[in-house]
Fold this sequence. Notes:
By secondary structure, the protein is of the alpha/beta class. The protein is 28% helix and 24% strand. It folds into two domains: 22-114 and 268-468, Zn peptidases (Aminopeptidase, 3-Layer(aba) Sandwich); 116-251, Aminopeptidase i, Domain 2, CATH 2.30.250. The longest helix has 19 residues, at 30-48. The structure holds manganese (II) ion (2 copies).
Amino acid sequence: MATDQKKTKNQKLQEKLFIKKESAWLDLKPEEQKKIFSFADGYKEFIKNSKTERLCISNIVSILEENGFKDIRKVKDLKPGDRFYKNFKGKTLLACRVGENIENIRLVGSHVDSPRLDLKPSPLYEDAEMALLQTHYYGGIKKYHWVNQPLELHGIAFTREGKEVPLHIGAEDDEPKFIIPDLLPHLAQEQMKKNGNKVVEGEELNIVFGHIPINDKDIKEKIKLNVLKYLNEKYGLVEEDFNIAELEFVPAVKPMDIGIDGGMVGAYGQDDRVCVYTSLKALIDVQSHTDTIISYFSDKEETGSMGDTGAESFALITFTSEYIRKTGIDFTWEQLLEHTMSISADVTGALDPTYKSVNDPGNVSYVGRGISIEKYGGRGGKYSTNDARAEYMQYMRRIADENKIPWQTGEQGKIDTGGGGTIAMFLSRYGMDCVDVGPCMLAMHSTCEVTSKADIYSAYRFYMAFFQDGEDV
Ligand code: MN
Ligand code: MN
C-alpha cells in the first residue's frame, strides 16, 4: 500500500471523497478481537436458553434482577439512578434506568419472538404405528427447513384444576428430540416438481411425538393412549389440556461458531435475540447517562406486532403513564413519547454471494462491516415502514463516528423484490424519532441463522453509545 507521501493528488482526493466500505475486522488490535469473541460467548450462552418469547423474557428478568433492577409493582416512586422493569404477561418487557433528565427518554426496542412451530388446538393423533402432533407455523418460514430438523419443545399447559405445567423437553443432550420426517428422494418425483412453497405444506408439518403402544389388544389407539398416559403420569395432563396449552417447537440446535476462524455465530432465533442481548447488555453496562434509558423487548413482531404483547399494543402508553405517575413529572404520555428518541433494534438481510441477484450490491449490508443503520425498510414504494428524517440519520452517524463504531447502510432486497417490516413504524407513530439499527445476517428466518461477531459487538457498542449520549437532535 502506498504511504501518504507516495500517494498522488487524486489518490488522496479519492480517499477523502469516496465512501469507505470495508471489513470491521481490519486493523483490530488482538485485545479488541479477544473482546469481540468473549462478548459472542456470552451471547451464545444467552440465546441457548432463550428459544421462545417466554424463555427469553424470563432470562432477561434474571439478568436484570442480578443487576439491581426492580419489578415496578414493588416500586412506589422513581428518581434518577433507579433501575426497574415492567413485565407484561411474561412475554414483553420494558427495562429502564432513570436519568437526571427525567423527561428525556432514549429507547431501544427489539423483539423476543422468532418463527417457530406452534401446535394446533387438538394436535394429537395416531397413524402408522406413531403418535403425531399437528402444527400451525408462526411467522415467516420456508416450511421445507423444518423437516428432518431435530426439534425441542417448550411451553406451558394447565390441568383442568388450574395447575400450571411448564414443559421443556429436548434442550438437554440426554433428552429425546422430535422430528418431522421428509419424504425419501426415491419416492419424491411428484414432490420435487412442486413449487418451493408447496414442497412441504403447512398441513404436512406433523411431528413424530411417540411410538410405543400400550399393551392392550382391546384398545384401538394404543400409541396415542400410551403418550397420554405418559403425559398424565408425569405432568397430570389429559388430551383436552392441549386445547388450552401454549406449546412451541423450535430447532434443537445449540449456538455454534461458524467458519474455520470462528468469526461468525450460527444459531436459531438470532432474529431478533441478537438485538435483545446487545441492547440488554448495553442498558446494564452504561456507566454514565443523563437521559432516562429504556430497552423495550416486544413480542409478536414476526406476525405483525398485533395483539396484547405486540408493539402495536398500548404497552408503551401504559408504561409511560406509570413512569409519569411515579416520577411525578408534569407531562402527558403524548408529550413524553413525542420527544423520545428511539432505535428499532432489528436485523436485516446480508448479501449472500450465492444469491446476489435479489439485492442491489451497492445498497445492501455485508456481514462483518459493522452495524447496519437503515433509514427505512418496508416494501414497494416504502410501505409498512418509518422513514427516518435526515437530521436523525446525521445524529446516528455522529454517534458511530465519535465512538469509532463500524457501520454501514443498505436496503433489504432490490426494489419490489420483497421486503420486511420492523417495529419502527409502531414506535414512530407517537411522533418520536426512530431508525432501524441492527446487525445483518445470512439465512434469516431459517433454523440456523448466521451473524458476524464483529457486527454483534458493533451493535452492543452502538446501543450503549446511544444511551450515553446526552444531546438532542
Ligand atoms: Mn426481526
Ligand atoms: Mn423476522
